[in-house]
Amino acid sequence: MKTGTFAFILLIPAMFLQAFALQVLWVWFIAPQFSLAPLALYSAMGLVLVVSFLKNDLLYSKNIADYYQQGLDVDTASTVFTDSLVYPLLSILIGWVIHLGV
Known about the structure:
The chain has helices spanning 3-34, 41-55, 61-70, 74-101. The chain is mainly α. The protein has one domain (3-101). The radius of gyration is 15 Å and the shape is elongated.
């Protein structure tokens, strides 16, 4: 599989998972505190993209660009994939624990 194809395939689930994590955390913490409406998944995706753009870090784009130029081996690919999946899931888990205590 070409590196560019892997990078594109990685971005899609990472974007959805990050948006889902933002949506869940929004409903648990932001919406009740400020009396706001729940955040829709696509709105969360847009917010994730805006924040990534402002940080100049479009969903790990720097890492993927570096790997694209240097070549992507299996260990590096699994690390990038794990990081893009584990961080949002860990955020949801920690948020869930905090939400139980609130």
